[in-house]
What we know:
By secondary structure, this protein is an alpha/beta fold. It has helices at residues 14-24, 36-45, 62-72, 87-95, 109-127, 155-164, 178-187, 205-214, 229-239, 251-270, 293-309, and strands spanning 6-10, 29-33, 50-53, 77-82, 101-104, 146-151, 170-175, 190-195, 198-199, 202-203, 219-224, 243-246.
Amino acid sequence: MSTKATILFVDDEERILRSLKMLFLGKYNIKTTTDANEALEILKNEKVHVVISDQRMPIMMGVDFLRQASQIAPHAMRLLLTGYSDLAAIVGSVNEGEIYRYVNKPWKADELKTLVAEAADIAIRLLDKPIEIPEKKVKKNPQELFGVLVLDSDTTIHHTVKKICVNNSAAVYCSSNIEHAFQILSEKEIAVMISEIVIDGQDVSAAIKTLKQYNPNILTIVLTSFQDTKSLIELINQGQIYRFLPKPAHDGLLGKSLQAALQRYQLLCNAPQLLMRHKVEQSAQPVTNTISDKVMNYLKKIRDRNTSLFNFTS
């Protein structure tokens, strides 16, 4: 990288900030603060490429800080670095902070270095090269509408999404099993997938994560009552889920999340360079081992169909 990235660390413990500064000093311009309000002022006045925040801080919780940071510096890459895997922080980091990665303390130095270098590289390429976004392509034929896929065995969710999408200019496809859902994905242009994590006792999180590798432009809203924090963190890092919503579904919140996802998909269509922000972490264990051959064949069709549509210089 010809440009030296600026990294902002926010943590209420001075010793943590000293450790982080020593780890990255020399390679980056390092900013540190124990005060989230001061961090927001830094973001207002300086170009920051990567923001890394703790979660439990006395002045302001990390999720609240990252939500404001995303509004002030939307192109900065955001990471949540915390020793606490509480559900509220996980959900907030996705829905409000739209973070790139969720990192547990204590961190592994080499892994953190690699992750920060990756995030800094993406931010530099997006921040320092103006992205020209052409006028939105208007789909006039109803058969060409962006698709919304609902993967859930609960048919009431199917009806809810159809009702929400009446005025959303989106075609809704519903499935109660994973193989049928991936068949739809291989045949239709699906912008957003709304998915349960466990369907009829089957954990489909591996398929969600693999789908993001084969089809990075798709935006996934996880709608579930499942509350295993480890699995949810993996869905953030390895699946780049767009939103996490708890069941029972709240129509207003689901509708708002779906509208935001459709708008983001349109942006990705017009500026595919932004797909770099959705790069997923590679799993230590291949998730494809838990996916059926039929689903894998559908995934390959999805990848081949989208290669030319979303191809960009990396």
